[in-house]
Amino acid sequence: MTKKILVLSGSPKKDGNTATLVNWFTEGARLKNAQVEVVNTASLKYKTIGCTSCRSCQELKKYECVIDDEVKGVLGKMAEADVIVMCTPLYFFSASAQLKSVFDRMFSLYKWDNEAGTMETPLKGKTLVLIASAFEDAGLDALERPFALTADYTGMKFESLLVPNAGVSGDIKNKPDIRLKAIALGKKVAAG
Ligand SMILES: Cc1cc2nc3c(=O)[nH]c(=O)nc-3n(C[C@H](O)[C@H](O)[C@H](O)COP(=O)(O)O)c2cc1C
Questions:
Q1: pTM for the full model?
Q2: Rounded to whole angstroms, how far apart are CA atoms 72 and 79?
Q3: How many whole angstroms separate alpha carbon 178 and alpha carbon 181?
Q4: Which of the listed residues 135, 141, 144, 161 should we mutate to test ligand 1's pocket, taking the one with most ligand atoms within 8 A of CB?
Q5: N or C: which end of the chain has fewer CB within 10 A?
Q6: SS3 21
Q7: Among 94, 89, 99, CA closest to 43
Q8: Which of 9, 51, 52, 5 is nearest to 30 (CA)?
Q9: Which DSSP helix (H) or strand (E) runs through 101?
Q10: Among 90, 144, 171, which residue has the most ligand 1 atoms within 8 Å of its CB, making it the best to mutate?
């Protein structure tokens, strides 16, 4: 069955390390006939900075953010995808703000019933992939943790490709071993 893969690319650098990793990953996924869409979260038009915690989404029957901007459409695509790939440079031991602005709006893809102690989400059963790079060799484990915890909480499978010592934007192009790993990961999640 053809896998639908939505890639959220969270770097402001159009031809940097994140963009290169995304290209390699999608090359692998397309080799396995996946239907791949890439969204650059740095280029989206936002009405708010991240989730406003208005909680209006919790009053709706559907899984939809009430903030009517381009993120809303991306969230709809997340609910439809089989695999969601989040790609980011390491920024101060965390994800880029450009990715986090979409990540937090995922709140609208959950419905909590605090009295019953239940949570429902269309994300359950999907696969979450984190692809990240850093200049140094420390910090990617800290970045990975919230993504892995979110996947576990949500009932998603989790995969990651973490690239320490990636250098400054663009340097990763000189790392053929990483290219092979990214292509292999693309193939794996497209096939799996
Ligand atoms: C604002 C900012 C913060 C960064 N923080 C870190 C960091 O905490 N640790 C690190 O190793 N690299 C850090 N870097 C380097 C990038 O994570 C690294 O060069 C990455 O591969 C760049 O990816 P890109 O080309 O897609 O932007 C930072 C870069 C920027 C611009």
A1: 0.98
A2: 11
A3: 5
A4: 135
A5: N
A6: helix
A7: 99
A8: 5
A9: helix 97-103
A10: 90
